[in-house]
Amino acid sequence: MSDSIIHRTARLGDGTRHGHFCVFGDGVVIGNGCVIGNNVVIHDGVTIGENVRIDDNAVIGKMPMKAANSAVTKDQELPPTVIGSDCIIGTSVVVYRGCAVGRKVLIADLSTVRENVTVGDFTIVGRGVAIENFCTIGRYCKLETNVYITAYSELEDRVFVAPCVATSNDNFVGRTEERFKHFKGVTVKKGGRIGVNATILPGKTVGADGMVGAGAVMTTDCPPKKIIVGMPAKVFRDVPEEQLLENQGWEE
Fold first, then answer.
1. Residues 181 and 236 in one domain
2. Which domain holds residue 42?
């Protein structure tokens, strides 16, 4: 007798195996060759591609929670979560309903990916990263350990975010009704980079191939192909030619 609970409508592909005490909900579809650990919960309607690894205690397709005074979480119908083929989902990761994850994405241990989020192919989401709701993360991005991506943010392709970077979306810091008109996350254009422990204030943009130095507090936009440093951050110099995205020889 199985110690897992698998809904009668759930479909598991050829060669897919799972550990103990898993729960697979109504209409779950899991592709061929997947490896699913112990105590994994996959909620109703989730679709998982082929050759996906999901480690112990992960939760896929979790419904959002809405506090009585939440400023950004909305009551809404959300589409089921989709996890692309060849992904790796780490231990105790939580991926919410209404999230779409591309192919060959790594979401490392203890990370959270909220609803209304897309994560592009080949992106790495490091340990303990939090991606809040209404965010778009591009292809070939790298978000390192303990990065915080605030709601309503957009990261384009080939963005690099170093450990412990913090972003924000509320210039009114939780006060006044006016703040509800101005919520805006951060934008990082293609090839933008943010150094360790930098802080990006609401609505700011890192231009294409721009770089924010370690520990910087970014209160104005970072121009394309410029390095900004300091508190508040100011333009320091150009990004060296050999570091520009166009000179890396990477495929698009």
1. yes
2. 1-64+79-143
Helices (H) and strands (E) counted in the chain, each on its own, are: 0, 33
Per the CB < 8 A criterion, the answer to whether 64 and 114 are in contact is yes
**Distance (Å, whole) CA 252 – CA 157:** 9
- For residues 185 and 228, state if they share a domain: yes
Domain assignment present for 28 = yes
| Length reported for the chain | 252
Q: Is residue 12 part of a domain?
A: yes
pLDDT the model gives residue 1: 44
Residues 128 and 180 both lie in one domain: no
Q: How confident is the model at residue 176 (pLDDT cuts 50, 70, 90)?
A: confident
Tens-digit pLDDT profile for residues 45-87: 999 999 999 999 999 999 998 776 666 566 778 999 999 999 9
Do residues 109 and 91 lie in contact, with contact meaning Cβ atoms separated by under 8 Å?
yes
pTM of the model: 0.94
Rounded CA separation 36/93 (Å): 13
The number of domains in the chain is 2
Q: Compute the distance between CA of residue 137 and CA of residue 186 in angstroms, rounded to an integer.
A: 12
Indicate whether 150 belongs to any domain.
no
Asked if 107 and 24 sit in the same domain, the reply is: yes
Report residue 48 as tokens. Answer: 């998982």
Q: Are residues 170 and 99 in the same domain?
A: no
Residue 98 exposure: Cα atoms within 13 Å on the Cβ side: 18
Q: Is residue 107 part of a domain?
A: yes
- Cα–Cα distances in Å, from 84 out to 3, 62, 120? 27, 17, 10
User: Among 202, 204, 165, which Cα is nearest to 180's?
Assistant: 202
Write the pLDDT tens digit of every residue in 184-240. 999 999 999 999 999 999 999 999 999 999 999 999 999 999 999 999 999 999 999
